[in-house]
Amino acid sequence: MANRGGFTNKLGFILAAAGSAVGLGNIWKFPFEVGDGGGAAFVVMYLAFCFLLCLPVMVTEIAIGRKTQRNPVGAFKALGYKNWAFIGFLGILCGVLILSFYNVIAGWAFGYFIELLMGNFEIGNNFSEFTSNILKIGLYSILFMGATAFIVSKGISGGIERAAKMLMPALIIMISCLVIYSFTLPHAIEGLKFYLIPDLSKIDGNAVSGALRQAFFSLSLGMGALITYGSYVGKNDNIVSSAVYITLTDVGIAFIAGLMMFPLVAFNNMGDMTNLQSGPGLIFVTLPSVFGNIGPVLGVIIGAFFFLLLSFAALTSTVSLLEVPVAYIVDEFNVRRARAVILVATIIFIIGLPSLLGNGYSDFFSNAFTIPFFSDQPSSSDFLSFMAGTADTLLLFGGFFIVLFAGYIWKKHNLDEEISFGYANYKNSFARILINLGVTVVGPILLFLLFIVVVLNNFFGIDLIQKIF
Ligand code: PHE
Predict the structure, then answer these.
(1) Could you give the domains of the chain?
(2) Whole-model pTM?
């Protein structure tokens, strides 16, 4: 087997994995999920899920990767469980699907950076015109996929780690500046109140399942991204503390993104926080006009800065999404990395074409699916949203099988042994109790239930949680 390369040190791994985690999910999705789910009450639930359930899943993925030093498919084979390699295939499929639409949104973000740099504040009002301009967004998404492919082709320490070491600190500095600025705007306080004062009446089944899905997606779990990154981690590193740092960074940046976003929105709505735009609109429709109101020069600077930040966050995530199938091809078929990258990136770009076309350019793909499939009152959905919903659900499915495998097939003592490398005291630690419970009880039960709830809801239009409560 050829030299696969690896992260130079623990910090390199933490930054790369945190880069995977921090993405559109944090800056674009988290704030409006919080808005929908009852503000601070949602945040508390989200934190509980991140630390009680997601952290054990994360450690497990990293441990499987480090133990086997393989891609997600090869990892299960190397452990001697060929029949469980389907989990790895499922993960690769997930990565391919997510990257296919994620790259389209990342392309929009990058396009907005260019537009705002040229002072085009009207872009928010012309969002649908922008997304139907196929030449423009096609070019932006080719550029974005190209940048992703370039980084991945340079390998682990020279590509992925290096990019994360530049982009992550830049991102943290940029977002901190934007938060400070947004605090100075009129009505900031109304926005912060909305964000930080819990509204318990909004906590319902949907908010609970939303919090868990968001936590999974945001931490890049369930598809073997962390099995893959874990396969490049050294034996002396404490993977539990790495996982804690990765989770803290992800949660921290999502939280800070909310601190930045709500004052901006409150400024725009002059303090009225009812009827918020949600979905893509929150960023791509509302924010440009906020920047326009800030003034011509400062608005250009702040606005371009914001969308550059969003592009950076997305780039360290697309890199991890591409690395999963690339590692599979490099490991299992002995293909040179650069070749594998070109092949996979091209295929994924093609799979993403319906998502690219389905936001106005092609009528068919803009209304391609009726969701829920089997309900009496389906509503039509564009291809991209359909892909996003499907991928989200698959992650839960993947996560369920990963914990089931670790807890009952590979067995706890093997997991414990792998985690002990770099963490001599692990056997007597609280972390061990948490992780063991996570893979044997909490994870399998919660993820299975949630998977059922989501499938019934998305595909059959049956709201199980509402029926029970
Ligand atoms: N965590 C990324 C985000 O929040 C998305 C992602 C999911 C990346 C799964 C890799 C794997 O944007």
Answers:
(1) 10-354 (1.10.4160.10)
(2) 0.93
